[in-house]
Amino acid sequence: MIGTISVLIVPLLVGCQTVPAAPAATAPAGLTVFTSGGFNAAFDTLAASYRLTTGTPITIAHGPSMGDTPNAIPARLARREPADVVILARSGLDKLVAAGTVVPDTAIDLGLSRIAIAVRAGTPTPDISTPEALRATLLKAKSVVWSDSASGVYIQSTLLDRLGVANQVRPKGRMIPATPVGEVVARGEAEIGFQQLSELKPVKGIRIVGLLPDALQKVTAFSGGVVAYSPHPAQARALLTYLSSPQADAAIRASGLEPAPRKAIR
């Protein structure tokens, strides 16, 4: 009798067991990206598209590629602020790779940038069409400003000497730290400003006169890499793959940059 009861009860107990729920889908890991001025506009657009497509949350922090300000990307990484991907001028990225802060085989060029010149909206447009015209314009200007990043370092340390106006322009010129040069020009605090075209384009209240003459132009690559201490290296690589793909080209061009020659991330 006892045995019969056991046979009947066991199936009932089995039938009452709770079926395990299917595991919930894992949400994509959030990424933190440090990006410097030249690539800011392009990345703001691309990050929004990537979030929409993949569901990946992206936190963006802007800062210069170099310089002594606390928000400069190298300074932030030296403090080991949370970061997964960095995008900055290639010269700055190479230093981070050499220091072991960025994973070497993830470094990739994303966009090529050229330097432009701006004046305040409504003011006369100076002639910068040739090296000789630019030289005359700089000598005539009452004040000149340039950035504290890649373009400004070139203006201050190379361009003025090449034009033979360093002694005349440096005393009335200054490097602008951690502030878009276009904003300084728009406020009327400087007559002429030099910065990457992609950094001048979003600023209101200025007129972009044009690019430096070809003979004086310096092309800067803005490049990305995975931070060595990133907690999400696979997801960071995936984002860089997207940024260096044909899908990113339209946003890069719209920002005033040229897409860099195609190269796969290893």
Question: What keywords describe this structure?
Answer:
single chain; 266 residues; alpha/beta; six-stranded mixed sheet; 11 helices; 11 strands; 39% helix; 21% strand; disordered N terminus
Largest sheet: 6 strands, mixed
Q: Name the strands of the widest sheet in spatial order.
A: 2-1-3-10-4-11
Q: Specify the overall morphology.
A: elongated
| Number of E strands | 11
What is the helical fraction, as a range of percent?
A: 25-40%
Order of helices and strands: HEHEHEHEEHEHHEHEHEEHHE
Structural class: alpha/beta
How many angstroms does the end-to-end distance come to? 71 Å
Poorly predicted sequence stretches spanning 5 or more consecutive residues: 1-24
Radius of gyration: 26 Å
Q: Total helix count?
A: 11
In what range is the share of β-strand residues?
15-25%
Give the overall average pLDDT. Answer: 90
Please provide a written account of the structure.
The protein has helices at 2-16, 37-54, 73-78, 90-98, 131-140, 150-163, 166-169, 181-186, 197-200, 233-243, 249-254; strands at residues 31-35, 58-62, 85-89, 108-113, 115-120, 144-147, 173-176, 192-196, 206-211, 220-226, 258-259. Helix content is 39%, strand content 21%. By secondary structure, the protein is of the alpha/beta class. It is built from 11 helices and 11 strands. A 6-stranded mixed beta sheet has the order 2-1-3-10-4-11. The protein has a 5-stranded mixed beta sheet with strand order 7-6-8-5-9.
